[in-house]
Amino acid sequence: MIRNKISMLVGGEAGAGISRSGLLFAKSCLRGGLCVFGANDYQSLIRGGHNFYTVRACEEEIYSQADKTDLLIALNKETVLLHKNELVSGAGIIYDKEEFSINPEDVESKDVKLYHVPLRKIAKELTGPQIMENTVALGAATALLDYDLTILNEVLQDTFKEKVAQQNMEAAKRGFNYVKENYGDNFGYKLEKTKLAGSKRIFLTGNEAIGLGALNAGCKFYAAYPMTPATTILHFLAPLDREYKMVVIQTESEIAAINMVTGASYAGVRAMTATSGGGFSLMAEAIGMAGMTETSPVIVLVQRPGPSTGLPTYSSQTDIRFAIHVSQGEFPRIVIAPGDVHECFYSTVEAFNLAEKFQMPVIIISDKYLSESNATAEQFDQNRIGIDRGQLITEQEYRQEEEYMRHRITETGVSVRAIPGIRGAIVRTNADEHNELGYTTEDPVLTKKMNDKRFRKMDELIKEMENYETVKLYGPKNADVTIVGWGSTKGPIREAMKIINKNGKCVNFLQIVYLCPFPTNKIEEQLKSAKMTIAVENNKTSQLSGLIQENLLMTVDHKILKYDGRPFDPEALAKQIMEVL
Amino acid sequence: MVSLNDLRTPKTNTWCPGCGNFGILMAFKKALIETGIEREDAVMVSGIGCHGKIVNYVNINGFHGIHGRVLPTAQGIKLANPDLTVIGFAGDSDQYNEGWGHFAHAVRANVDMTLIVHDNMVLGLTTGQATPTSQQGFKSKSTPFGVIPPMLNPIAHALVSDATFVARGYSGDMFHLKNLIVEAIKHRGFAFIDVFQPCVSFNYLNTYAWFSKRVYKLEDENHDVTDHKKALKKALEWGDKIPIGIFYKKERPIYSDSLSQVKDENLTKLSKQNIDITSAMKEMM
C-alpha cells in the first residue's frame, strides 16, 4: 500500500472541463495537508483535441510534475491510448465502459487495474450538464484512494455557486458510492489527511503569483493584449481592479499596452504589462523609449516556443538573449527570471522597487510551464519586501531652489524624480537624446554625458545587486557536478537531484535568478570550484551557456537541452545527468 | 495664470522659416493662456516628425515619445492622473500611418484628452514622402509617378467611430485655431483637431495660397455641430471649398466614468504601502 504519494492524470477533449477537474482534485489534496503540483497540457484549440491535467500530491515537498501516472481518469479513449505507457505497475484507470472499451492489450502492463464507473449514466440521471462526468470521476477517484469525500465537497462548495455546487456534490457522492460498493479496497494507493490539513497554504500558478506580487507592490495600472501564456495575468487582475483601486485595460495591441504603461509610469504610477514573444517583439521599440526616458514600466515576458507563433500553448526558454538585448541602442535594463511561484511573487515586488529606484524598465521572464502550472506555497509574506520608490519627491518635499531637471546628471546616474503636477516643477522627458531638462539635443559632448549618466545607474545597480539573491545554490557546496539553469527548469532539476542523490551521487544546482545585470562574480565563485558543469535548458542553443562563456570566459562542460515544447521529466532528466556523471 | 513669457523655452526653434507648425505653436500657447491652465497641470505628448519638436518649444510638462504612439502614451498619463490636462500632438504620417490603429480606439474609448494632428500631407523630417493625407496623384520622392490610393479622411473616420469632438483647423488662421484648441481642451472627452499646416519645403501643392483660397469656416454657415449626418456630409467636402471649424460635438461618458476606482482619487495619490492581498489569495486555498 502506497500512502500519500500519488500522481493522477485526468484527460479528455478540450471543452470537457479537464483542467477544472484537475484543479478541484489538487485543491482537495492541498486541503488535506499534502504538497501538490498541477500541470496543464492543452492544445491551441477550444473544443476537441486532447487536453490533460496532471496532479502530483505528496507528503514531502515537490517541485514539478511527474512523468509516471498512478491513477488515470480517462474521459475518452484517446486518453488511454496516449498515456498508457506512463502507467506504473499497479496503476488504475477510471473510465466508462459504456462509452468506450479498453482492450487488455491497450494497457501493456498486466498490473493495470480497470475501474469502470458509469460516468455518463450517473451524470445524466442527475440531469446536470454532461460536464459533470468529471465530478463523478473525481468522487470515484476519492473513493479509490480511500480519501475523505468531505474535503472534495468543501472545495466544490467554495468553487461553485450554491445550486451548481449541490449538483456537483451529488455527482461526486454517486461516483464515490459506486466505487465503494463495487471495488472496495482494491486499489494500492491511499490518501489521508496530514498534520498540515487545514493550514492556510495556497495553490497557485506563476502568473497568479506575479499578479499577487503586482498588487502587493502597489501596481495601479495594468495594460495588456491577450497572448497565451501571459493572458491569465490579465484574467487574474481584471476582476480585482475595483477592490484594489487599479486600472486594468485590455488594449488594442501590445504596442498600445507598453506605451500606455510607460505613460502611466511617467505620470507617477507603478505600471505593468505582460505578453509572450510575438507581443514582446512589438513592444521592443517602446522598451527602448522607457530606457531613454528613464521611466519604470515592468514587463512580463512569458515565453513559449517560437519563432513566430511557434507552439502557442507550450513551453520554452528561448528568449533570454531577446530580453537582455531588446530594442535598438544601448541602455540599462533589468531582467529577472523567477523559477517557482514563490520567486514569481517576490521577484515581482522587487521588480517594481528596482524599476523605480533605478528608473529603468524591468523585464520579468517566465514561461508557459511556470506561468500555468499550479504549485503549493505558504501564504506570501506581504511585508517581506517593503515598497521603495527611490528618489521620488512629493509635493510637500519639493523646494523650488532651481529649475527642476528631470534628467539631472548625478554621480549615481539617478535623477530625483518628480511626477507631473508638483508645483514649480516642469517634468519633461524625451525619447530623443536630451539634456538635463529633457530638451532634445544633438550635441556630441552632451550625448556622451547622458549615455554615461544612464550607464552609471547600471554600475550602482550592480553594486546593490551584491545584496540580492541573484543566484541560488541548492545542494551541497562541493559536489561531483554542478547543474546550472534558470527559470522553470528549477522544479524538474530539483526533483532530478533528489533521484540522483538517492543513487549515491552528489550534485548541486546553481540557479541564476538575475540575467541582467549578469551576476558574473557570484556565478564565477560557484563555478570556479565545480568539478564538472552541466547546463540544463529548454532551448536548442543553450543560451545560458553562451552568456556564461561571454561573461566568465568559461565553457560549460555539458548541455542537456530539451526543445520540444514540453518541460523536462524529472526522472528522464536524472537519467541524462547520471549518464554524464 | 501663465503668460507667453512663462511658456518660452531656451530651445532654438529649428522648423523651416514659414513652416505651418509656427501657427499651431502660437495658437496652442495662446489657448493655454486663455484656458488659465497652470504649466504644472498640463502635459503635452508628441510623436516623431517635425511636429514632435513642439515639446521643446513650450515650457510645460512634456513627453516626446516615439513615432505613432502619441495616443497610448497620452492615454496612460491621463488615466494615471485625470487631474492633468493632456494634449497630444501628432503628425499626419505619425498618426494616420503608424498610429492609425490607435486612432479608432482612442476615439472609441473617449478618454478625456485632446489630440492635435499637424497635417501637412507630406513627411517633412524624412525629406518629403507621401502620407495617407497626400492627395491622389501627389508626386513625392517616394511616389514619383503620383500617389495611387485616394487620401484618407480622418474627419469622416473620427465621426463614424463615434467621436465626441471633431474639428479641423488651419495654421494660417491662428486666431481661429486658438479658439478650436480652447474648445477642445474644455471638451469633456476625446477632442480631435486635424490642422492643415503647409510644409514650405516639401509640399508644393498644398501651400498657404492653396489652403487660403479654399478653406471656409463652418460657423460662417451656421453649421449645427450636433447634427451627425450633416457633419459627415461636411467631412466629405473636398475641392474648391474645404470646411474648417467644429464639425461635430456631443457628450458621451468618458472612459474613466466607468471606473469607480478612480472616481475619488487619481491613481498617483493612492498609497502603495501595506496593500493587503489576503482576499486575493482566498480563491487559491
Low-confidence stretches of chain B: none
Shape annotation of chain B: globular
Q: What is the string of SSEs of chain B from the N terminus onward?
A: HHEEHEHHEHEHEHEHEH
Beta content of chain B? 15-25%
N- and C-termini, Cα separation of chain A: 34 Å
The portion of residues assigned to helices of chain A is: 25-40%
Question: Rounded to an integer, what's the Rg of chain B over CA atoms?
Answer: 20 Å
Shape of chain A: globular
Tally of individual helices of chain B:
10
Strand share of the residues of chain A? 15-25%
Largest sheet, spatial ordering of strands of chain B: 2-1-3-4-6-5-8-7
Short description:
The complex is a heterodimer of chains A (581) and B (285). With 581 residues, chain A is of the alpha/beta class.
Search tags:
heterodimer, A: 581 residues, alpha/beta, seven-stranded mixed beta sheet, 18 helices, 25 strands, 21% strand, globular, B: 285 residues, eight-stranded mixed beta sheet, 10 helices, 16% strand
